[in-house]
Amino acid sequence: MLLKIKQLIVENRGHRCEITHKNIYLNSTSIISIIDYAGADNFLLTEKSSFSNSKFSLIKMSHGNETEDVIAFGTADSLYTEIKQDTAGRQLLND
């Protein structure tokens, strides 16, 4: 099942960073883990970003032999709830 996630994008432009977001779609079966990500808070405050009051999660995705980290808007609990609702009938281990 595909999930619509709002991803935080940070691009280094030399003397400043450009901070934006985009909507992406993730296959829920490719998600390895989701944790709350507090590391973005201090960085966004330092950069005076409009996103500094938002909560973020770090999603680890599996792509065959490789993994990818995605910084997503929302708490780990809220994203887990979305996944759980979208996978009706299927359950995660230890759920």
Low-pLDDT runs: none
Net shape: globular
Overall average pLDDT: 87
Strand order of the largest sheet: 3-4-5
Count of DSSP helices?
A: 2
Let me know the number of strands: 5
Helix content: 10-25%
Radius of gyration, in Å, reads 14 Å
The biggest beta sheet reads: 3 strands, antiparallel
How much of the sequence lies in strands comes to: over 45%
Distance between the termini: 18 Å
Judged by helices, strands and strand pairing, the structural class is alpha+beta
Write down the secondary-structure element order. Answer: EEEHEEH
How is the secondary structure organized here?
Blueprint: E1 2-12, E2 17-27, E3 31-36, H1 39-46, E4 56-63, E5 66-73, H2 76-86
Architecture overview:
This protein has 2 helices and 5 strands. 20% of the residues lie in helices and 46% in strands. The chain has helices at 39-46, 76-86; strands spanning 2-12, 17-27, 31-36, 56-63, 66-73. The strands form 2 sheets. It has a 3-stranded antiparallel beta sheet with strand order 3-4-5, with helices on one face. Strands 1-2 form a two-stranded antiparallel sheet. The mean pLDDT is 87. With 95 residues, the protein is an alpha+beta fold.
